[in-house]
Write a structure and sequence with these properties.
Blueprint: H1 3-20, H2 24-38, H3 49-53, H4 60-72, H5 76-83, H6 87-95, H7 101-109, H8 116-124, H9 136-151, E1 156-157, H10 158-175, E2 181-184, H11 185-188, E3 193-194, E4 196-201, H12 205-214, E5 218-222, E6 226-230, E7 236-241, H13 247-254, H14 258-267, H15 279-285, H16 300-306, E8 321-325, H17 336-345, E9 350-356, H18 368-385, E10 389-397, H19 408-411, E11 416-420, H20 429-441, E12 445-448, H21 466-475, E13 479-483, H22 496-501, E14 506-509, H23 521-530, H24 544-558
Parallel strand pairs: 4-7, 8-9, 9-10, 10-11, 11-12, 12-13, 13-14
Antiparallel strand pairs: 1-3, 2-4, 5-6, 6-7
Helix pairs in contact: 1-2, 1-5, 1-7, 8-9
């Protein structure tokens, strides 16, 4: 039980109490406890029980419930509410955006709706607008959220499914040890979301059927050479069952996008029934440079491979710094010093601290006086930690009119500015383009943060014309962030090749809110590899000396004002 799990339990308990109309004072205290626990800089499971009861913002009643969870892995009062709440109501609370406890209580008790399907039907019949708090706009937002949720059931982020996939691969190779297994399809291609895990194998469909059905998996698909199942994890497991003769050919075919494979067939005398020892041998026979599965996406990659001109893609060891990170000065968990020391431990050369700007009041965005204090601290730390360096940055909100969140006089005090949209996300394309373009054209903007604001499997990004935005970044010497948080991965890797063609730098940034967040660089790298990004084209691969020159260039741009 880590802090986030404990906090989530208290938060859910508070919401369920509100839905049932129970003790509002207790519900508020549990909600406050969830907030305070999330902000703790120490894991509750590492400290003595007596100390838990004396923590600020916890109190005896909440403290006892924390201890209960640490000892049993359960929160009995939450379990009681879960037992008396319909599953569909809990699903609405957890997954449908725009539905808080009060609205859900109305849906359940007044409309007598208990499932998401019923709620969608009621939206289609325009029934929600008959009740207080549900206007037409709210109803449409709920409908869109339900449709988005239903369309993504059974999908997982790559990061969510990674450990399970690797463990299952090892288990299959142990159980069916006389057969060969190769992970293929979406996971092998490093796609950001996964709706199915697939293997190529010389094991028979009969063997799989016997094993999975005995272990309470549901049979989904069955043909002569393919079979798939689904278990309690709600992820489909598929198996291409081949003879030894076409094992590798099938692996190659299934680890290509349709676009890449069609181009391959068009330009080679490909015979998928030929025996190959390895995928590398396939490329060698056709005198084509080996294309790793993560690059087998767009057709132009094959032309590069034929010309032996594939890029040397970025690797984890090429990251030299953490750019875009939040400390406990805003909504991060760690001090700036802790973050800097973690960078040093990891062998990194510098840290770019970019806490939230003042418009993000919900995240303790920095007011002007706190900016001065933070900069004084950074200067002190830079003297202590030399030659490691901390750069003064800010994730500056792009306001509703496209302006940045501070005056030029304040913006000048930062080394670089990351400009991002955090408010009024439900924009049409015209509005979104106006805000982004105005911010990009602002000479203080050095990096455009998470370009579309998307949250994978949760929220579509606001609509933009990617080419126009990228062209504007090229014209104004603005770097485009590849936000490496596995739920963002924004800019979408599918547009990075166009940015590179326009000589726009990309910056793989973890958007870290704690030390573990530094690890998210990995997922940005996986996405960047799909786009053929090299270390030379990535800002966070710059050495300290190179980054200092980049900062000088950005400051020269703003000094033209």
């Amino acid at each position: 039980m880590d802090n986030y799990t404990i906090a989530d339990n208290f938060s859910l308990l508070a919401k369920l109490m509100d839905i049932h109309g129970d003790n509002s004072f207790k519900a508020k205290s549990y909600s406050s406890a969830a907030y305070n626990i999330e902000k703790l800089n120490i894991q509750l499971n590492t400290i003595d029980e007596e100390k838990i009861l004396s923590l600020k913002g916890i109190g005896e009643s909440v403290g006892k419930k924390i201890i209960e969870q640490l000892q049993t892995g359960q929160l009995s009062s939450l379990n009681e509410y879960l037992e008396k709440t319909p599953q569909g109501i809990i699903e609405m609370l957890l997954h449908i955006k725009g539905l808080g406890p009060k609205k859900i209580a109305t849906i359940w008790k007044d409309l007598e709706i208990e499932t998401i399907g019923e709620l969608l039907y009621a939206c289609n019949e325009n029934r929600l607008t008959l009740y207080k708090g549900f206007g037409e706009k709210t109803q449409n937002n709920i409908k869109e959220s339900i449709e988005f949720y239903l369309s993504n059931m059974g999908n997982y982020l790559y990061e969510q499914i990674e450990t399970y996939t690797i463990a299952l691969d090892e288990k299959l190779k142990t159980i069916f040890k006389e057969f060969s297994f190769y992970i293929t399809s979406a996971f092998k291609r490093q796609l950001e979301t996964i709706d199915k895990l697939e293997w190529v194998t010389n094991c028979s469909t009969t063997n799989f059927k016997n094993f999975f059905l005995q272990n309470e998996y549901q049979l989904i698909t069955e043909t002569t050479n393919y079979i798939s199942f689904k278990g309690k994890e709600n992820i489909e497991l598929g198996f291409y069952c081949c003879s030894n003769e076409n094992l590798i050919a099938t692996l190659f075919k299934t680890s290509c996008s349709e676009e890449f494979y069609n181009e391959w067939v068009k330009h080679t005398n490909w015979n998928e029934n030929t025996f190959y020892k390895t995928e590398e041998e396939i490329f060698s026979i056709y005198n084509i440079e080996f294309v790793p599965a993560f690059l087998r996406e767009k057709s132009f990659i094959l032309e590069q491979a034929k010309n032996k001109s594939l890029p040397t893609v970025i690797q984890p060891e090429d990251i030299k710094a953490i750019i875009h990170s939040h400390s406990n000065w805003s909504d991060g968990s760690n001090t700036i010093e802790e973050m800097a020391n973690e960078c040093i431990t990891r062998g990194l050369q510098y840290l770019v601290i970019s806490d939230h700007s003042k418009a993000a009041y919900y995240a303790k965005g920095l007011t002007e006086d706190r900016i001065v204090a933070q900069h004084e601290l950074i200067e002190t730390l830079n003297k202590q930690l030399y030659p490691f360096k901390i750069f003064k940055s800010i994730e500056c909100d792009i306001l509703n009119d496209g302006n940045l969140d501070y005056t030029p006089a304040i913006l000048k005090t930062f080394d670089i500015i990351i400009a991002s949209v955090h408010s009024n996300l439900k924009m049409n394309e015209e509005k979104a383009m106006m805000r982004l373009l105005k911010a990009i054209e602002n000479p203080f903007t050095a990096i455009l943060g998470h370009m579309t604001g998307r949250l994978l499997l949760s929220r579509n990004g606001y609509p933009i014309n990617h080419k126009i935005i990228i062209d504007a970044c090229a014209a104004n010497n603005v770097v485009i962030e590849l936000n490496a948080h596995p739920r963002r991965l924004d800019i979408d890797w599918r547009w990075i090749d166009y940015a590179l063609m326009k000589n726009v730098l990309i910056s793989i940034d973890p958007d870290a809110h704690n030390l573990d967040g530094f690890n998210d660089c990995k997922y940005g790298i996986l996405a960047a590899q799909k786009a053929g990004l090299t270390k030379q084209q990535n800002l966070s691969s710059f050495s300290l000396t190179e980054f200092e020159k980049f900062v000088e260039t950005q400051q020269a741009k703003r000094n033209k004002l």
